[in-house]
Amino acid sequence: MFSACEDTVDIQVNKGTSALVVEGWLTDRPENHYVRLYLTNTLSSSNGFDPVSKASLLLTDDAGNSEQLKEIGPGRYEISTMKGVEGYTYTLRILTSDGNYEVVSKMPRLSMAPDSLTFKYEEESVVYEESGYYPYLHGQELEGKDDYIQVKLFKNNKYLNSAGDINIFPDEFVDGNYISMGLDIDSAFVQGDTLRAEVWSLSESAYNFWTDIRTQLQNGGIFASPLTNARTNVKKLAADSKNVVGYFGTSLVRTVERKVE
Fold it and tell me: For residue 149, which of 210, 216, 237 has the smallest C-alpha distance?
């Protein structure tokens, strides 16, 4: 009386056209920074992303500094002399065989310099999926609205980059206050673990970019929304240039570290 059958349905999906992906960040840290260029893949592709080589990348700021980036590997371009300065506006010009592009990014201030980390032990519950230690970040938030930060976490020197580890905050409800914020983590800490928290200043467009990334990574279930590209700050300089996605941003960075004891 009970039976079931399965029908195979072949769906023809258009391959579409590839887009240029721009990935990079400039900070005030005393280290070299990098910009990656590569092309998106089709849905059916199982190959890696194709790097974009032999492009011309020029980085300038509004203080008269400039640097021609060197390609140190396929599609990987190095910023070796310029560093981020609060309030400076940076322009990245990208010239490729498929089009010309430009990014303009003003270095945002760091509105919350962290002063300490603490941990609180929680038992497994409806709120906490597992027993363990959960981190809290503390610091003074500067007066002045429309500031944004991202907190990047490193557990025993390993970057935590799962969907549950993305921590981004606006200052909408904490402007000018001393704040203690609980940080989202994908799994609890145990005694002996070391946590490093890096606080990155974000512009509003960078905050929107990371919001889009978090939304898509956590998108699932029967009420999932259709996949969309994260908002980008890269502009085409000509209508016939290949479409572009990705982000090139600027941030000030401060770090605190603590061991779970």
Answer: 210
